[in-house]
Amino acid sequence: MFSQKLKQIAPIHQSPTPMICVPVCAFLLLIGCPDETATGPAGPSSDTDAGLIFQQSNNTPPSTDAGHAIQDNGETPVADAGNPAPDPDPGPQCTCPDGYDPTPADDACTKTITVAATNEGTSYEVCDAQDNWVYGKFGAQYPGGTKVRNEYWGESDGPGTVNGRLNEVGIWACNENTGQAGYDPVGEWIGFAHCLNLDGKGDYLVGIAGDNQVRLKLNGETVFEYLENNTAAFNYWWISALHVNSGMNIIEMQGYNAHSVASFGAEIAGPFPFNSLENDEAMIAANYEDKIVFSTGVMVGQSFDVGEDSGWTCPDGYALNRCLPEPECTYIDVIPCVGESDVSTPATDGGTP
Q1: Residues 150, 270: contact at Cβ < 8 Å?
Q2: What is the C-alpha separation between 87 and 242, in angstroms, rounded?
Q3: Which of 8, 19, 37, 195 is the residue whose CA sits 20 to 30 A from 342?
């Protein structure tokens, strides 16, 4: 079709007799008049088809835009001189060593190994724990030692006042006979795993407390625990800041009952801008209350998923992965991109009482 259109606008000579040279040919007598018979790709054209025939590799007519250059090799596509091709995709900005892949936001390198989780065959249902005025009576405890007492975090001076986060969200395993939180299990770490699958890196706050001990892990590594044999584990709501990269991250929260009455509570709040929670003042100013993404308080009626002799268990260094349809154990190793010195600021714990 393209060839036919060009034929319509090219001069057509009805006579095979060449046209007489115009006077300008007088100046070219030494070299002769220009040949009036056009030559196409296959030699001289017929007198009924004197225009040049441009061949293309497809049937799409070229644009009449002056900015378009016609390619006549039958292979190279038409190029638009007015719209240069975009620069090629530079690919990942994070270079990783063998065995590691860039995170979704190119902020670190990660290696994951997933193995089957072990179901221990015993499952504990979650019940609301009994309130107690000593739970959280001293308020929130921040990593730098700052303590904040109020009705939200906790401020109780006697049995007549019961408030604070542990009373609000505290839970423990149900007693199968009473249907209420009991003492068992005693001497076993139980809790929950929460999966964060992030498009970008960010900061999170975790609050945790328990009667009698508590532990917090990020991607299989312990970042905070309170193991002292005193009441501080449940007198304070312990605040930790976690700095996490994009991609998959698993936060595990566990409680341990040494004897008698038990309660355990934990919350995750975020995300906040990466590395924005660098000190107590920044953590206090963060909007924890309105950014809670996980709370033990909503787990009533479900089952504890992390345990030692119950629920699901994983090898050391692995985290229980609930991002997957079925629980599995995932090892997550995060390192800096090649040429960078640090992945993120280390997680901070709740300090000491």
Answers
A1: no
A2: 38
A3: 195
Which residues lie below 8 Å from residue 337, measured CB to CB, with a gap of 6+?
Answer: 93, 94, 95, 96, 102, 106, 107, 108, 109
- What integer pLDDT is reported at residue 239 of this predicted model? 98
Residue 236: how many other CB atoms lie within 10 Å: 30
Q: Which among 226, 224, 217 is positioned nearest to 252, based on CA atoms?
A: 217
Q: What is the rounded distance in angstroms from the CA atom of residue 103 to the CA atom of residue 196?
A: 13
User: From the CB of residue 296, how many other CB atoms can be counted at a distance below 10 Å?
Assistant: 28
d(C-alpha 239, C-alpha 294), whole Å: 14
- Which residue in this structure is represented by tokens 């308020």? 139
**CA pair distance 79, 69, nearest whole angstrom:** 6
Residue 258, phi then psi, degrees to nearest 5: -85, -30
> N- to C-terminal Cα distance for the chain?
86
Using alpha carbons, select from 187, 190, 188 the residue that is nearest to residue 126.
190
- 3-state percent breakdown (helix, strand, coil) of the chain, nearest 5: 10, 35, 60
Note whether 7 and 51 are within 8 A (CB). Answer: yes
Per the CB < 8 A criterion, the answer to whether 292 and 190 are in contact is no
Distances from the Cα of 195 to the Cαs of 192, 218, 259, 320, in angstroms? 10, 10, 30, 9
Tell me the Cα Rg of the chain: 37
Using one digit for the tens of pLDDT, what is the confidence trace for 283-306? Answer: 999 999 999 999 999 999 999 999
At residue 67 the predicted structure's pLDDT band, cuts being 50, 70 and 90, is very low
- Single-letter amino acid, residue 154: G
Quote the pLDDT of residue 105.
96
* 246, 282 Cβ separation under 8 angstroms: no
Cα separations in angstroms, 68 against 6, 7, 348? 16, 20, 61
